[in-house]
Predict the structure.
Amino acid sequence: MDKQNKSYCRVPFDSVTVSPTGRMQLCCEAQWTGGSEKTKVKDIGSIQKWFEGKYLTDVRKSMLDGIRLPECETCYKKERLHQRSSRTHINDRYFQSNTDVEEYSIKKIDLKLGNKCNLKCKMCFPYASSELWKEWKQLGWNDNDKDPNKETSWKYYDGYFEEDYSWPKNKSNMDKIKEAAIKSKLIHVTGGEPTLNPEFFDLLKHCIDTNTAKDIVLEVTTNATKIHPRFFDMASKFKCLRLTVSMDGVGSTYEYVRYPANYNAVHRNIMRYHEFIKSLGGKSNLLFNFVLQVWNLHNTIDVIKTLGPLAVNSDGGYVMIEELENPIFMQWKMLPEEHIKDVIKQLAKEKSVNHPQSISWPMIAFGRMLEANKVYRTTDHNYKKEQLLKFMHKQDAHRHIKLADYIPNLVDFLQ
């Protein structure tokens, strides 16, 4: 097999993923085909048995044979547009020091322990936020026909609203997770918000008590709105900590997108995380993830300049910019051409400044992203704008907020 074939990915050979609803899936970006990849944790004998079962066995065989899978369309699409994706990144990293394309064993467990979260981010949805679950219900959106995101993503499958997000409360489910976790080399936990979840800390304690934490890399993505008093001590017991803070803006733009967070409070927590990661030394690091969307294109350069220098041991990542895929009516490409050109002009001015690498590298990546998406010049986004306006007006009225108080430069576009 050509290790660089267009289907092969190391993920099903090296890791397992558990969704917020307690279902096994190929990876966190895999599209749902409605098949056995969504088997629930409660219905399997063990994580290991599922890993060795028919679904992943068939996936691995198809990939070795170069057969493309419908679950993997997210990465295929990114590769068509940018020539890069999570698939290519993971493969590149693996083949730097390995040549065996067929070896498989669980080295990483990717967890979302339910949807418990304290934020209602503009581009998010109930699948990943318990607060949005409540809001969707209050707005009457908890119905397949009325869900505003029903057209936009695999994640909005019929019935997702009625799933059991409390599955981690079941001891039997978590025992299966723990059994797999202590045998892995890497535990990756996202949310919801992991640091609000008692089961997250119970899992860390289990790794520490079984004396396996010292051999496990802990990766956590947090919104940094709170720092749990136990986190620093427990995280320090692991081989290293790779912490990613989700930041989709600075200032009032941040507060609109990641409602109802307080930017100044979050920034103070980031500074505490910054100092903690530095104190750990070794390979521990701090990175930032930024989801580029209609609400924050104008704010991207300020985000890079503010947060880039706060990254620690980033290995070139600093601020990782990811384009919003869904909901499609919040993609940045729907902005008027003059808005996009203004940002391009700002970016050109920054190129003449002698910025440190922590700023210049994310700006280069941002510039390439803008250049790759010239499609905005010819695509008709009127329908998407209608969807966006309907969504924004109803949600903002429910929250008793106004766009003008947060992002005034978008008011003319979103009348």
In short: The longest helix spans residues 263-280. The first strand starts at residue 15 and ends at 18. The mean pLDDT is 92.
